Amino acid sequence: MSGSLNVPTQMRPARILGIGGYRPTRVVTNAEIIENIDSSDEWIRTRSGIESRRWASEEETVVAMSLAAAGKALAHAGIQAEQVDCVIVSTVTHLYQTPSAAVEIAHKLGTKHAAAFDVSAACAGFCYGLSLASDMVRAGTARHVMVIGVERLSDLTDKHDRSTAFIFADGAGAAVVGAGDDDAEQGIGPVVWGSDGEHLDHIRQKEEWREALFNDDGPRMPHLTMLGNPVFRWASYEMAKAAQQALDAAGITADQLDLFVPHQANMRITDVMAKQLKLPDTVEIARDIATQGNTSAASIPLALERMLENGQAKSGDLALIIGFGAGLVYAAQVVRIP
Amino acid sequence: MASTEEIRSGLAEIVNEITGVPAADVQLEKSFTDDLDIDSLSMIEVVVAAEEKFGVKIPEDEVKNLATVGDAVSFIEKAGA
Hints:
A: Peroxisomal Thiolase, Chain A, domain 1, 10 helices, globular, B: mainly alpha, cytoplasm (chain B)
């Protein structure tokens, strides 16, 4: 045995440097949704808080939407694509088993052969990606990581299923993670995350691809299904506990928090979580779902972008973010707004 | 052991706090859905708050059988509140 391995021994502070989003151009109203389901505008609004959502056109692909969001995040961060050395894409609707969406995005974005991979963590995907990215930057595995959450859930939505047709939507959100200069610039708190495979059936793709393609009735898309009431209970109460743990882990009290940005699953879930967390009135709560619908992995960065645009969020603010969804999986952190 | 009336009035407080329905309207014969206009999501909130208040467990499969306030009160009574 000879020689010692040269590895970094010092951790660097990691933070979010920029945020960007892409919202598909087509607005889909509740009136359009109820052409296919036995429901009403009023029922959809009271059960979910959704007034309208965006569905992507054929041209607004997973890759195209991601590139648009990533470009805005780079501009916000003030860095060039060549400085990105890892791209993490969280999605469940890139309908290729391989290659990953991340590789195509890394190439078309203009990175110089950045490491690139997709993660599958459903609606928790952005927070999963952010956790990976912050650890990479801390350890020196990457200098700048592009984290993207992107979905075309409309492709996997059964437009005739009255329990899901009004919820799912499309979009992309991105964040650039990089190093801060000193500990005062720590910008991503410890992640509180986990999974609960006992409830695989709560939110899932109804059937495997082979079953959807090769059956006596002819090929069909394998739609998503959801058990609304159990999911509501789990998300509202168990996830409020996880969110509280993320606050505690970061050493932040509710009074010190500026923003609460949960995955935009359902306005009613957001309301119960905020009540459980006993958030003071000074905390701004993300309500992007009203006009965006549930965009799974994209919902948190999209909501953050909206809050920055409309002045609810400003640079330096502390935001509690939590993603939760199919698996079940979840992840929560406290982050500083760039 | 809490009396039937104690459980009813405790439940009425919960319903009022979550949905704004006047506590006095929450009587045993009232249907949560038809009379009190409580939707399935608010019902989950009521159930979770009731579990906490009365120290009982109301399984998910049971919730759909709790059509009236009386159904819920007697379930909580039997569950040992």
